[in-house]
Design goal:
Blueprint lengths: L9 H20 L6 H19 L3 H5 L8
Helix pairs in contact: 1-2
Length: 70
């Protein structure tokens, strides 16, 4: 089975979900004009939410964030 050690604390996971939801809501409300910017914002929102649910951020791992110890 595939297992990834988490490197995001709970508070950061909650903030990532909230930020992703806020970006997605802004896009769907029309705050962003259609085009390349809106696709980039949608990709950023999806990345934030996905890393929050998985609990692992590859960018944070590359910058040296350690795994969470239980």
């Amino acid at each position: 089975m595939f297992f990834i050690k988490r490197n995001l604390p709970i508070w950061e996971r909650v903030l990532r979900i909230a930020a992703g939801a806020a970006i997605g809501a802004a896009m769907f409300k029309g705050a962003l004009s259609p085009g390349l910017t809106s696709y980039g914002a949608l990709a950023a929102a999806a990345t934030l939410v996905l890393t929050a649910f998985v609990g692992f951020c590859p960018a944070c791992a590359m910058l040296g964030r350690r795994y969470l110890e239980k």
